[in-house]
Amino acid sequence: MLQPPYPELDDLLEMIGEAGYHLAEIEASEGAAGNISVCLRWQIEPRIHFPIKDKITLPQPVPELAGATFLVTGSGRRLREIVDEPTANIACIVVNEGGETGKLYTSPRRRFEQVTSEFNSHLAVHYDQILAKNSNFHAVIHAQPLHLTYLSHVPRYQDEKYLNTHLLRWQPETIINLPEGIGFIPFRMPGSDELVRANVESLHAHRVVVWAKHGVMARSDVSVKRAADRVEYAETAAKYEYLNLHSGEIGEGLSVEEIRGICETFNVKQNIF
Ligand SMILES: [Zn+2]
């Protein structure tokens, strides 16, 4: 939940750009992989940045979000390039009464035909989280971080308990920033209803979820950069784990006692260790 003064549209576009650029820097967004969206419930004027108005049918009805605004990256756009010209890469959607359709605002400089094909997954998570927390802001990122995605191909990391006890042991920050751990869902066809459903369920309980053999989705109700941080914390943990596998598993990792001590000191409620 954000308190006024709310970020301006320009600030939000800039933050999406910076988050996208950083995701590319950490090898979480090759080519046109990855997508970003934010939902805000305060009034903004989209037409200064996005003067072209069309209609869009939403992937699912979201009646309670009538009047809410979404900023969504365009299909096929590169996250690293958003920062150069945000309006060429982002669309603005304002949800109509009834929640089945929206007004689609875009820039004459837009370089995409449609919003990201993963918008169905984004929208379902925004809807679930905003209703659950009665929030006025929510950010979602889909990215494809190299090490985390690689580990999701290794059978023993496909178990959520195993994944978390092995990844959350390398730095004190990891459990502090991801106290519910990292969610895991088996491979689901990109864009499918099965992925949408499994993703909503896992992100209801976790701040970041691994989509096996594909990538991750992360959320935040504070900022898009906070969501990007969560991708980075999870990916850094996976990088440590990968390093350890490569060095013959000589690293100790934080012990269960040490992690419990960290949680006590920093008042972190968790049930992984
Ligand atoms: Zn993807």
What would you say about this model in short?
The chain has 273 residues and is an alpha+beta fold. It is built from nine helices and nine strands. A nine-stranded mixed sheet has the order 2-5-4-3-1-6-9-8-7, with helices on both faces.
Present the secondary structure layout.
Blueprint: H1 9-25, E1 35-40, E2 52-57, E3 69-73, H2 86-89, E4 90-95, E5 101-106, H3 119-133, E6 137-143, H4 146-151, H5 160-167, H6 172-177, E7 182-185, H7 193-205, E8 208-211, E9 215-220, H8 224-246, H9 256-265
Parallel strand pairs: 7-8
Antiparallel strand pairs: 1-3, 1-6, 2-5, 3-4, 4-5, 6-9, 8-9
Helix pairs in contact: 1-8, 3-7
Bound molecules: zinc ion (ZN).
How are the strands ordered across the major sheet?
2-5-4-3-1-6-9-8-7
Poorly predicted sequence stretches spanning 5 or more consecutive residues: none
Bound molecules: zinc ion
Look at the helices and sheets and give the structural class. Answer: alpha+beta
What is the straight-line distance between the termini? 29 Å
Number of strands: 9
Largest sheet: 9 strands, mixed
The rough form would be described as globular
Mean pLDDT: 98
